[in-house]
Specification:
The structure is a single chain. By secondary structure, the chain is α/β, with parallel strands linked by helices. The chain folds into three domains: 159 residues, Rossmann fold (3-Layer(aba) Sandwich), CATH 3.40.50; 181 residues, Rossmann fold (3-Layer(aba) Sandwich), CATH 3.40.50; 79 residues, 2-Layer Sandwich (GMP Synthetase, Chain A, domain 3). The protein contains twelve helices and 17 strands. The strands form four sheets. It has a six-stranded mixed beta sheet with strand order 2-3-1-4-5-6, with helices on both faces. The N and C termini lie far apart (59 Å).
């Protein structure tokens, strides 16, 4: 079958569950489920590492199988007899995905003998009556096929031998998936590009990407579970529970949001060099790069720390709009003065970004979540706001009159005119005679005057000073 599928596109939001057939990737730990999932999706969504237990949450991503579309779900390693809270939580997530799925890809390791757990899982799959395909993985060449004979003892049919790492056998796998998928209406056409809307296009046509970031155990996953009103993400009272950056679609007040849950970001010195947490932190940073608004979760019960400032700095350095969510507000006991002091201490630690808004919330009870989303929408609006050139230059006339630029070799630096070059974030270019003579403090003064005049609460603002080119040069 000749394949024309559109791989490698990143949709503005994942499909709503139920809109497309759901294909679950199931198997015990370390059989290559995430590698197979990433190859079918066409991009690295799930963290891959040669050790068991890396994937924990359900990861959803849309894929094209010829002219049919489906939603794939990657899961943690399925254990028949879990021996701890993490394993029990993973199994709970697996059961939810299996109940929702229309097709199951049961992945086994073709280089090892099936375990008792594999045989018991096959019995569960037969009883579920959900169509399934046995995917015998790690068959990197013909010499490995003869060693996979033990997998046939599982008695699951159909089967296919593949190498998720190298792509061997994926044509046959996609044929089997295609035969078992119903035809769906594809919302995309071949000539459509799934890119961010350009300036002038309506942003509300697309889901707003919001990354939930912060230190471990700040309540990021609990917040998303509360908003989705389901046990969507694994939550445990221990750091490092979340590994992958997990996208979840939320419809709220007629608007669409993609909430990106991320791993807690600790100090490098506290993360072991060979730990999967290193990759999880890198995934969290990438989530900031692909979002528009970052919500920094702060633990009100523990107080704001230096590491919170470092996480905020990562978002600011990537020019993202930011909202500060002071979580666990319901645990703060004491007088109004005590709560006011906590907010003041938060401002002191995060003083380098005074333009951010603080919202007091409780992910456990849901208190303050309406205010949080008002702040998210406001920050995004400011992130996309444009100021007219005439208004901007009236401001610069006032700046030059009341606080003229410094002298350079006895001659004043001239500010000729200013324009807003772009949005997301708002970026201004000031044409001047000698930009190198403008001290950082004067540049900061100009930036502050722009904020005082036009707002921009919740978003970084960039002001670039450029030397005006002479005519003919």
């Amino acid at each position: 079958m000749k394949r024309r599928g559109r791989r490698n596109h990143v949709p503005h939001h994942p499909s709503r569950l139920g809109d497309l057939p759901l294909v679950a990737v199931l198997g015990r730990p370390n059989v290559g489920k995430s590698t197979l999932f990433n190859r079918l999706v066409g991009r690295a969504v799930s963290i891959v590492e040669d050790r068991p237990g890396v994937t924990r949450d359900r990861l959803y991503a849309d894929a094209d199988i010829d002219d049919k579309r489906c939603t794939l779900v990657d899961m943690g390693g399925w254990e028949i007899s879990p021996d701890g809270p993490v394993e029990e939580g993973i199994n709970r997530q697996c059961r939810i995905a299996l109940e929702q799925s229309d097709l199951i890809l049961f992945v086994v390791d073709g280089r090892t003998t099936p375990t008792n757990g594999d045989h018991e899982t096959v019995d569960i799959l037969r009883r579920s009556q959900t169509p399934s395909i046995m995917v015998i993985n790690k068959i990197d060449g013909a010499n490995h096929e003869s060693g996979a004979g033990d997998c046939f003892s599982l008695g699951l049919d159909p089967y296919v031998m593949v190498s998720a790492l190298h792509g061997r056998g994926f044509g046959a796998l996609e044929d089997l998936i295609y035969e078992r998928l119903p035809k769906t209406d594809d919302p995309l056409t071949d000539d459509e590009d799934d890119i961010e809307p350009g300036e002038g296009e309506e942003d509300n046509k697309y889901a707003l990407r919001v990354a939930i970031v912060g230190r471990p155990n700040a309540g990021k996953s609990s917040l998303i579970n509360k908003l989705l009103e389901e046990d969507r993400l694994l939550t445990l009272d221990k750091p490092g529970t979340t590994r992958d950056a997990v996208d979840s679609l939320l419809e709220l007040n007629g608007k669409s949001y993609v909430l990106i849950d991320t791993a807690g970001i600790r100090r490098k010195s506290k993360v072991p060099a060979d730990s999967p947490e290193r990759m999880a932190v890198a995934s969290a940073v990438k989530a900031m790069e692909r979002c528009r608004v970052a919500v920094l979760m702060l633990d009100a019960a523990q107080g704001v720390a230096e590491q919170d400032a470092k996480v905020l700095g990562l978002a600011v350095d990537r020019n993202r709009a930011v909202v500060l969510a002071l979580n666990k507000w319901d645990l703060i006991k004491g007088s109004r003065d005590a709560r006011k002091k906590l907010e003041e201490d938060t401002r002191d630690v995060l003083a380098f970004a005074p333009w951010t808004r603080i919202v007091n919330i409780s992910a456990l009870t849901g208190a303050g979540l309406k205010a949080l989303f008002r702040a998210i929408d406001d920050a995004h609006n400011e992130f996309c706001k444009r100021v007219s050139t005439s208004e901007l230059n009236r401001l610069f006339e006032d700046i030059v009159e009341h606080h003229p630029p410094p002298l350079r070799k006895g001659r004043p630096v001239k500010l000729y005119y200013a324009t807003q070059a772009s949005v997301r974030p708002p970026t201004f270019v000031v044409q001047c005679s000698y930009p190198e003579a403008l001290h950082f403090s004067y540049q900061r003064y100009v930036q502050n005057r722009i904020r005082e005049t036009f707002g921009f609460e919740g978003t970084p603002v960039r002001v670039l000073f450029r030397k005006r080119k002479r005519r003919g040069s």
